[in-house]
Amino acid sequence: MNIRLNKVSALALAAALLAHPAVAGPEDNSLHWASDSMPSNIDFYQHTIREGIVLMNHIWDGLLYLNDETGEFEPHLAESFRFIDDTTLEFVLRPGVKFHNGQELTADDVVATVDYVTTNATPQSVFFLEGAEKIDDRTVRLFTGEVYPAILDYLANLLPIYPGEYYAEVGPEGMSRAPIGTGPYRVTEHIAGERVTMEAFPDYFGGLKQKPSIETLVFRRIGEFNTQAIELMSGGIDWIWRVPPDAVDRLEAVESIKVDAGETLRIAFLGMDAVGRSGDSPMQDLKVRQAINHAIDREAIRAALMGPGSRVINTPCPPAQFGCVTDTAVIYEYDPEKSRELLAEAGYPDGFSVDLWGYRDRPLIEAVLGSLAEVGIDGRLNFVQASAIATARDEGRLPIWFQAWGSNSVRDVSASAGFWFSGSDVDYSRDDRVIELLKQGNTTDPEQRLEAYGAMIQRVTEQAYHVPLFTYALNYAYNSKLEFTPVPDETPRFFRSRWVE
Fold first, then answer.
1. Total domain count for the chain?
2. pLDDT at position 2 over 70
3. Taking the model in full, what pTM does it have?
4. Sign of CA dihedral 380, 382, 383, 389
């Protein structure tokens, strides 16, 4: 990777200043932030993109929210909740909560939202819900059908409540063009794939998120990190993330910029088509999958491109999640000679060519391709938009692909391995034993959960159904006058930020 921020010429910086004048910052109480990805449809239920999850947390609210100080899930749109039994939760809604269009939140909106996500196929998994029932205008019950120990985590992260009548009228496309939520910010402009502008909602109820201090948020998609960095230095934007390790020192040297870092729940892995959903391919052979695991120098790639705070993983889940039992995993050490031997045993002594799909973190993918090339595997990179790879993935068209996964910020293995190996459209192993073990993990008995998940992880890694790479450590760089606190769930809370002198 060739960042070379210390060699940005005076002419290039001057050009950046002219092209993007310093409009961001405390002067007008706005915050401009940028990232390299943006969902084409920002309706939360139509994507799994992290930037879209960040937008969701500012536009919409859920019944529950995580208290960052206590680590407990507490009522948010609800004022209280209780378990009626192991599969039924009752919520009493907070009175007077308004949507951005002035409509007041009622139990009908909760029921309509649950009806939508349980009767329509959406990229966001809501397998944990079976239905909802209105008791009165402020009371609603949710049903899970079976026991889900992480249900509060899922509800807080995966069930923003929509205005029922509005969503029925405009649908996902209309909700993306003109989003309506109850959140701390309302959208005033959305240029698909380019920019989202939001203003603080004057009638926001506050709750755990609290009323925002910053008046205007502007999110822009800027694909190249160099461009992001130049704009940050010139004052065109205030906040960026995923700063490469070799750029950290250079940005820290700029007086007006602060840099923070920390490990997240996000992991990187290679998915492989072990059952031939994309057609006949070498990945259907166990020895080939094992060879690919041995071929990749994960530690060297991590050290060069992820930096401090990240770590190599051997499991289909981040170690910080409950149920991510690390001691049952089969470990594939970096061993190119062993990789070549396995390829020869599988009938590929000279290697083979394959299309490897990706949608983000191109330098990481290119480093992986370099490792594969050393053992004779010619990985032809097909780099596409996130929405394109998601569609192809769900349709079963990917022989092998690079995937970053943040578990929707859920701190339970059911949101990582439970998502990718449960027999759904994204499962490219379709292993009945793995699916059964995941089902056995759905219990309120923590010991039984750990036993089932440990066996699941052993099976997934024995069969080399994917290539676990490493956790992500996010580096954030932002205007030094911005009060911002990084959080492990990779969902920046700009509604908690403010400008200070």
1. 3
2. no
3. 0.72
4. negative
